[in-house]
UniProtKB/TrEMBL annotation:
GO cellular component, one term: cytosol
One Pfam family, short name: ACT
Gene3D superfamilies from the UniProt entry: Acetylglutamate kinase-like, VC0802-like
Name of the featured protein: Aspartokinase
InterPro entries for the chain: AceGlu_kinase-like_sf, ACT-like_dom_sf, ACT_Aspartokinase, ACT_dom, AKii-LysC-BS, Asp/Glu/Uridylate_kinase, Asp_kin_monofn, Asp_kinase
Organism name: Desulfolutivibrio sulfodismutans
Family designation: Belongs to the aspartokinase family.
Entry keywords, A to Z: Amino-acid biosynthesis, ATP-binding, Kinase, Lysine biosynthesis, Nucleotide-binding, Transferase
Domain (ACT) ranges: 264-342, 344-411
Amino acid sequence: MRILVQKYGGTSVAGLDRMKQVEARVKKGLAEGFKVVVVLSAMSGETNRLLGLARQWSANPDLSECDALVTTGEQVSVTLFAMLLKDAGIKCRSVMGFQIPILTNNNYGRARILEIDNAKLLDMLNEFDVLVVAGFQGVSCHGRLTTLGRGGSDTTGVALAAALSADVCEIYTDVKGVYTTDPNMCSTARKLDRISYDEMLEFSSMGAKVLQIRSVEFAKKYNVPVRVRSTFCDDPGTLVTQEDELMEDVLVSGIAYDKDQCRITVFNVMDCPGVAAAIFSPISDAGILVDMIVQNTSRDGRTDMTFTVSRTNLEKTLEILSRDNKDIGAVEVQHDLNVCKVSVIGVGMRNHSGVASMMFTCLRNENINILMISTSEIKITCLIEEKYLELAVRALHDAFGLDRAGGDRVC
Ligand code: ADP
Ligand code: ASP
Ligand code: MG
């Protein structure tokens, strides 16, 4: 049995006309001899609308109820789409996460997939030509509905492709593929034909929401070829795949940005063993990801600690810090919401120096102040003021010649 997994995002299913375009793509897959597993997101805006309702109803919405609420967005998409296919005479059925089941842990809002029963899926595929699966959702060992984090339908798609050893996982969205930077922010962004799993991981973790990071982790772990393409044209899109020698020739493959950031500074903490642990352990115990961290040089046995968290986690982080204030000897905590991250990414950086200084020089030329810096083997990230974001992305894109194939990117 040859299996094709196709995932369609919110804009691709937002209304009858668009779903008709999805129907045409599914029919094409069938005509090529595949059984098709179609993973759908909620219609665009629906998940936000449902989360807004939860906040209207409760000051502090219960997370498990929130997950049960937002899964209805995907349920609407898959049932309506299955009706369309049935009217067209296609043997299909809608499938919710709990019916497979896609078993997850009970970390509501950001649950991780633990297991997918492929025997049951294969049985269903023997009976039906198309399965229309609700993305983004699973079920915990306690039988409660869970969701996989924002953008989680990508992960459902790739995880199902891995579980079914599908030929490929196609991710259909509203842009033609993965670009050198967000094409909606930079008009000279260029579509990449291929990108390695590692680079895509950096793109996603640095904020490029075209693929959810966990979907790329799955793809890399199980070696699933992923093709990102547009629902609305026939461009072949971008293949996310294993790294090869040609890719290493490329010094910088793109620029990513993340607006969902805030900077927190804890002033005047004691500079002694255990202080970083005292600050960050309770934050991490609360499931909050801390990204960039800088500790200033010490004066009179005291220092300042600055770090970033996502804006959604700001309140909780401040609450934890005020609770633990006495243990760390801190006198003041400040936060700043007007910041964002911009990152330069490329596997070629492993073997070449000079990218960081080029990035810093480019930002200086635009008179953009760097607030914090962090690096990995294949990326350099700067925290800057949010008002400079578009300017920084465009200037860096230009400085690294990313609008030209090859361009200055090849050493
Ligand atoms: P979907 O609803 O189909 O899942 P998303 O909105 O989650 O779509 O992701 C697609 C969006 O990702 C694009 O509209 C684009 O603005 C954004 N994006 C950010 N960085 C990139 C990039 N490097 N390449 C392509 N798209 C990007
Ligand atoms: N509907 C969910 C969201 O908006 C999942 C997805 O679209 O991938 O985050
Ligand atoms: Mg998405």
